[in-house]
Amino acid sequence: MDPAFFTQLALSAAAVGVLVLVAAWAKIARPAGPLDEHRARELLAEEFPNRAIDGIWIGSDGCGALARSGGLALVLCRVGDGFVARQIPWGQAVSATFRGGRLSIDLSDIAAPRAVIALPSWPPKDLAA
Question: What residues have CB less than 8 Å from 46, skipping those under 6 apart?
Fold first, then answer.
């Protein structure tokens, strides 16, 4: 084997090591923590700045939330290491499938096809209209 091969191998290993250290230092791929009401309201305000929230329901596992804003439902659900926000008609959210304590909402989006939110009951009695 040629000494140039070992030099290239050592430099490649060092470069990979530096990239791993930079990723660890930058905390890349750190998953988002569970949602609480405050964090859900922040994310919804960031994504939908002109929407007033009439009611909000946070998933019991912290992996999703659903808010009502007039005739729309604002949906937050975990995808990968973060959350995505989508808006759908309120009637679609009310009629979504609820089984085993999980609300399953079809978002019809290739990037986030379905939102699954753990809730104690659905639909809410006071805002089902």
Answer: none
Residue with tokens 């499938």: 97
Instruction: Write the secondary structure of 5-22 as one string of H (helix), E (strand) and C (coil).
Output: HHHHHHHHHHHHHHHHHH
pLDDT reported for residue 2? 86
Q: Are 64 and 118 in contact (CB under 8 A)?
A: yes
Note whether 118 and 59 are within 8 A (CB): yes
- Structure-block tokens of residue 118: 């753990």
Burial class (CB in 10 A: 0-12, 13-18, 19+), 43: buried
Q: Which long-range contacts (CB under 8 A, 24 or more apart) does 95-101 make?
A: 96/122, 98/122, 98/123, 101/60
Would you say 74 and 67 are in contact if contact means Cβ atoms under 8 Å apart? yes
Q: How many CA atoms lie within 13 A of 10 on its CB side?
A: 5
Q: The tokens 């140039």 sit on which residue?
A: 4
Q: What is the pLDDT of residue 110?
A: 85
Check if the beta carbon of residue 40 is closer than 8 Å to that of residue 67: yes
pTM as predicted = 0.73
